[in-house]
UniProtKB/TrEMBL annotation:
Binding site for NAD(+): 76-89, 282-294
Catalytic activity reported: (2R,3S)-3-isopropylmalate + NAD(+) = 4-methyl-2-oxopentanoate + CO2 + NADH
Lineage: Bacteria, Pseudomonadati, Pseudomonadota, Gammaproteobacteria, Cellvibrionales
Any one Gene Ontology molecular-function term assigned to this protein's record: NAD binding
Protein species of origin: Gilvimarinus xylanilyticus
SUPFAM superfamilies documented for this protein: Isocitrate/Isopropylmalate dehydrogenase-like (SSF53659)
Residues reported to bind Mg(2+): D224, D248, D252
Purpose of the protein: Catalyzes the oxidation of 3-carboxy-2-hydroxy-4-methylpentanoate (3-isopropylmalate) to 3-carboxy-4-methyl-2-oxopentanoate. The product decarboxylates to 4-methyl-2 oxopentanoate.
GO biological process: L-leucine biosynthetic process
Protein name, as recorded: 3-isopropylmalate dehydrogenase
UniProt-annotated location(s): Cytoplasm
Pathway(s) of this molecule: Amino-acid biosynthesis; L-leucine biosynthesis; L-leucine from 3-methyl-2-oxobutanoate: step 3/4
Amino acid sequence: MSKKIMILPGDGIGPEIVTQAQRVLDAVNEKFSLNLSFVEELIGGASIDKHGEPLTDAAVENARSCDAILLGAVGGPKWDTIDRAIRPERGLLKIRSQLGLYANLRPALLYPQLVEASSLKPEVVSGLDILIVRELTGGIYFGEPRGIRTLDNGEREGFNTYKYSESEIERIGRTAFEMARKRGKKVCSVDKANVLEATILWREVMDRLAPEYPDVELSHMYVDNAAMQLVRAPKQFDVMVTGNMFGDILSDAAAMLTGSIGMLPSASLNQSGQGMYEPCHGSAPDIAGQGIANPLATILSASMMLRYSLGMNEAADAIEKAVGKVLDQGLRTADIATGGTTKVSTSAMGDAVLAAL
Ligand code: NAD
């Protein structure tokens, strides 16, 4: 049966890196007779420029009919000063909430070939393999009321609402326990239960779930300590589960442990397994158009898509193996280049992965 994939290149380096991922998908499509078909839509600044909004309802409807979505990245200085309600990032929030993509999976895996590119000492990071499970459709990024209001004294005040319902915590908690079962069987739940009531409930629900997963060890950690432990002794973690905002921050910190944010894929899944796959990084406007962006996070996102939403494990394995082979050959984009390696462009990296396939 044919599987339909939506491609959302987005802004900045988005189109450059998605082009390489598309080439890789085309290659495995042919090699493994996957019967994939593709449709493309605009998101972010590109959509604002054409339609006056960061994601049209028609694009969302189209996305609903797809089995999976591959996204580049959105945003850039061109759209930084427009009305907040239609900024590029709103397109992302819209598709995540409309499709109910509540579970964001962010692996932070250090390729042995890149140990020198990590910001930490090799002995601290070698063998690192963490999965951060971030709740994506709730918490302070969506909580109402929100806004900027003027107080009686004329001063302005910004405010947001941090809330999580038991069912929201439970479903992301279950995702974390299930993922841990397939890995190192440890879940560390990250909260700020010493200060925030919303996360006191978070901790309570996680504790309530734990007996249902006796084979998985649950621990709790305050987010400030978790940030510290990630840079002190990151290998203590297997699966980390946390809310939207903490997950946003911790996953970027974990990204740097792996050498470059340009290496990290992510998946956002809904309850029916439909997912959106994207690199963890943004649109990198500082290097857009220069042909130097690292396409590997997007290529690895495509491989996660084949694995988690389409059940095409053989093709996913082949892509991951090809990426490992290219790194073995010493080929590196500028962000992960170290002494003794060969610096290559975005498209040359794509060529190399195709050749390795
Ligand atoms: P960023 O991730 O775009 O860039 C941070 C740094 O990492 C930059 O120096 C950039 O050059 C580098 N970098 C990122 N991806 C790279 C890659 N593939 N190869 C090589 N280097 C790479 O974050 P930022 O600078 O904070 O944000 C830039 C824009 O991206 C903003 O408009 C922001 O809102 C947006 N953004 C979008 C997403 C998304 O689409 N999911 C996520 C984060 C930020």
